[in-house]
Amino acid sequence: MDFANPEEHRACEFVRMSVEAEMGFTDPGGRRISSWVREDVCGSRNGLRGPGGRRARGFVRMSVKVEMGFANPREWLVCTIEDELLISTSNRKRPGRPKNEIWQHFNTIPADSTNGKKDLHSGAACKFCKQKWSCGKTSEMIAHLALQCPKPSPPEVRALYLEILNNGSFNDNDDDNSSKRSKPYKQSKITNHVERLTVTDDKQRRCSRALTKFFVTCGVPLWIVENSFFIDYSKELCPGFQVPKRTILSTTMINVETATVIAEMKKKLSNETNLTLGEFLKNEIIKVIEEVGAEKFCSLVSDHASNVVLAKNLVDIIKLNWATNIITCCKKIVTFFKQSYAGGAILQQEIVENMIKGGGLKKYVITRWTTAYDCTDSIIRCKNALKQNFSKNSHTGEFLKNEIIKVIEEVGAEKFCSLVSDHASNVVLAKNLVSTKYPHIFPIRCIAHHINLLSSDIIKLNWATNIITCCKKIVTFFKQSYAGGAILQQEIVENMIKGGGLKKYVITRWTTAYDCTDSIIRCKNALKQILENESQLLNLEIISILRKQNFFRNVKDLRTILLPIKKAIINLEHKSTTLADCFINLIIMATAIKELSQTSNQNFSKECQNVFDKRWKEFNFDYYLLAYFLHPKYRDTGLQINTFRIICEKTLSIWKLLGGREKSANELIAQISNYSLKSKPYDFEFVTGIHTVKNWWLMCKQ
């Protein structure tokens, strides 16, 4: 564009400018135009006014490419816009943040907008292994390519993101622990000058890494990081440190530390020569060799390496009869004190009082070669404590009674209403002795322990034992086999099987029998795929188990009977559980066992019924039956005619123990009759979700 002065002199200088919001112009004579240009541009109206003009009404940010000539000093600056102005007003939505480069290795899955949620994030699918995420997060995708992708990306891509993960040089604004929203300005507090309430990003990173190392190396459960006491402790140490959430600690932070360890390993390997590599899968060996450099290796060594031979010699010594007997006895002692709450507590008390160094008893693990010594050494260290434990405090009923009474009197006898325990003879005697001294404290048998005994008896039946044994062998094989476990995990991911992989059965954890059988059924198709396509990875025993006729059907039938047992145990763990809930869960279990005869082998069904009847007879259900009757939701629903008399007799026996006399006992029976007939004041309906048993009875009292 051309600008001319009155004498027709052409301005010779051309300027390209970027104008934003507020500008000042100085004319060639040195006088500054003091007016600020704020104008709303529309079409070709874009004149700029001088100092004497009125202020423009619109506010705008503009980016312009113009060529300008300046007139003589007495003329006001005039400009003409050559190209289209790019205008961004406050009413126009700002463009989103550009995606991270990691997305070029992932396919975008559109977000589901049908649920009415705002700020939905797109999902992601790996282009190499096809694994999917409902919400694509930068940190998870980087960690996937660097550490977890079962079908590795090109080496340069993997190396790039391993380095990025190691350096932590990425921003993941989708993580729970990060927020990039600007916060309103707050006036600084006076405490800021005494103790800093903020830390630098570098210190935050170093503290988070140190915390991650502590949790991983010490085997501390990750949920503790969200415990309020742990957060308070961290704030006392460093008020400005933001404790990471459990989800961030278990994903981003651990992935960063893993990448750091791998980087350190590679750095050390790069400076080594004549390396030796143990036997491993062919593809994995070649991958490691090519990654480190083939020229650095000189041999491949199998299981007959000297260190393995030395370990084998140790195992051979332990297998001698004399040594085996000693190790077996030590294992039994350790197992008892690990499983016995009372025994373990007293042993720990003796260790503290005698200031025994090295801690308590140690387990022997056959796959860990040094634990044989640790186990025997712990027995010797705790020798005096073990002798004092049983010579001083024999766990007779009288001893337990005195210990229980000591606790009751310390807390206050009026605060107790029952004693709950297992059915061991010494404990039963102790409960009865306590109940004699305090008639208002009822001896109750632990229903959860009773259900566990019932489930143990069912699992010990030959048919169930064979199925559980086969399931344990399958789980153990895939847990210990690197190749088999990797392929099974890949099948689980590709088939999107919910609930995770195979679960172990642990005899001391009551619900794991169901979890083990359920995991076999969930992974049924994945196991069949491996059997058909990758059978060379399986041993003959696993192949024969998976090919057995009706194997999966039998596992499914066993799972059917174990499901109500698991539900009953979980329901009984709630704080609000009543004796009536226990009674209901036992009835549900009895119904499930009865219905089993329609879907399973007849012999097993009869054996299960016999086991249930045996446990039912040896259990005193009077308290549970009375609790069921006194629950306003049930009352006498489903009870036989002669059951009401049993309830009345149990009620009178309890009333007598509490000091009730004949007149008040007759009044009590009359009240129970009115309650059974729903006569006033017991005619209110019990509404589940609104009423509790306690407030319903209080309502009747009012």
UniProtKB/TrEMBL annotation:
* SUPFAM superfamilies (UniProt xref): Ribonuclease H-like
List locations, semicolon-separated.
Nucleus
GO MF terms here are: DNA binding; zinc ion binding
UniProt-listed InterPro entries:
DUF659, RNaseH-like_sf, Znf_BED, ZnF_BED_domain_contain
Protein origin, superkingdom: Eukaryota
User: Does this UniProt record's set of keywords contain Zinc-finger?
Assistant: yes
Every BED-type domain range: 97-157
Q: Which UniProt keywords apply?
A: Metal-binding, Nucleus, Transcription, Transcription regulation, Zinc, Zinc-finger
Q: Record's PROSITE patterns?
A: ZF_BED (PS50808)
Q: Which GO terms describe its cellular component?
A: nucleus
Protein name listed in UniProt = BED-type domain-containing protein
Instruction: Tell me which species this is from.
Output: Diversispora epigaea
